[in-house]
Amino acid sequence: MDTIFISELKVKTKLGVPAWERMVAQTIILDIEIGYDLTKACKSDAIADTIDYGAVVVRIHETLKQHSFQLVEALAEHICQLILKEFGALNVKIKVAKPAILAGLKALGVEIERKNLFNI
């Protein structure tokens, strides 16, 4: 399987368990790996034969403006399902990091991977 990756995508979203933390958008950092068969795109050199990563980035920004989440786990799942369903990815691995959220900590977050069960 081939992989399209989006590294260190900084996006703003409302995220956190306490309600006050979700009142103002905060920056999170996403690392995304999208599994897809790129054989056809490698031969055709056509965007129609791959996943348009620019469209993925735009769609992530849109959905995170529309939704708020208490847990980074729920946010990660939401983005995975969006990429699987809307872009037809074979699988998605995502790392969601909240930078400098606690004193003395560079970042905290989660990493999850989901497969498209309909493409197996």
Q: What's the level 1 CATH class?
A: Alpha Beta
| Secondary structure tally, helices | 3
Based on Cα principal axes, name the global outline. elongated
| Helix/strand order | EEHHEHEE
Number of self-contained structural domains: 1
Distance between the termini: 12 Å
Average pLDDT level: 92
- Major sheet characteristics: 5 strands, mixed
**Structural class computed from helices and strand pairing:** alpha+beta
CATH superfamily heading: GTP cyclohydrolase I, C-terminal domain/NADPH-dependent 7-cyano-7-deazaguanine reductase, N-terminal domain
Helix content: 25-40%
Q: Under CATH, the topology is which?
A: GTP Cyclohydrolase I, domain 2
What would you say this structure looks like, in words?
This protein has 120 residues and is an alpha+beta fold. The chain has a single domain (2-115), classed as 2-Layer Sandwich (GTP Cyclohydrolase I, domain 2), CATH 3.30.1130.10. It is built from three helices and five strands, in the order E-E-H-H-E-H-E-E. The protein has helices spanning 39-44, 53-66, 72-87; strands at residues 2-15, 26-36, 68-69, 91-99, 107-115. Strands 3-1-2-4-5 form a five-stranded mixed sheet. The mean pLDDT is 92.
List the helices and strands and how they pair.
Layout: E1 2-15, E2 26-36, H1 39-44, H2 53-66, E3 68-69, H3 72-87, E4 91-99, E5 107-115
Parallel strand pairs: 1-3
Antiparallel strand pairs: 1-2, 2-4, 4-5
Short description:
By secondary structure, the protein is of the alpha+beta class. 30% of the residues lie in helices and 38% in strands.
